[in-house]
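Go through this one:
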Amino acid sequence: MILIGSLTSPYVRKVRIVAAEKHFELKLELEDVWKPGSRIVQLNPLGKVPTLVMEDGGAIFDSRVIVEYLDQLTPVHRLIPEKGRERIEVRCWEALADGLMDAAILARLEATQRPEAQRSADWIERQMIKVRAAVQAMARGLGTNEWCCEGKYSLADVATGCALSYLDFRFPEIDWRTDNPALTRYAEKLFRRQSFVDTLPPSA
């Protein structure tokens, strides 16, 4: 299978970490979605990464769909519970993490991609309010637990780790660690997992 994406996308990283945890080898093909004529639109009408190209040439898109597909391919190291409240809890953590990444990316695009005269400080702050609220919700939800859900490593931790790591990567000025020591200890342990180390985005 081929994963179309970029090295800096936190959603692509989420898929790559899940693939590593599930022991799948995905061929990563880099694609610039901002480039005119990008072939991503031939595979995904939304023109977004990640997109997973299957053996038969069909494509799956949206990171949440892709990780669920990969997780159900084999029972080895299930990251999403099959049913019940446990499954919903994991998916809610993923939604929280993805929401943080959505807001952070929107803020960054507003600040870096729009002409300076057209940038909205209010819009950026609105997104950063969501980012800060999501971090606080993560800290409260984790508490003193070892992992996000049911005492075991799951997709909730993959998604949360990608979100916090993205803040470190793109928003180093945000000090989410000082007021959240338990979340900091959790994140540092998470960031030492080999799947996270192997998928670190480039420094620039």
Observations:
- The two ends are 28 Å apart (CA to CA).
- The mean pLDDT is 95.
- The first strand starts at residue 2 and ends at 5.
- The domain at 2-73 is CATH 3.40.30.10 (Glutaredoxin).
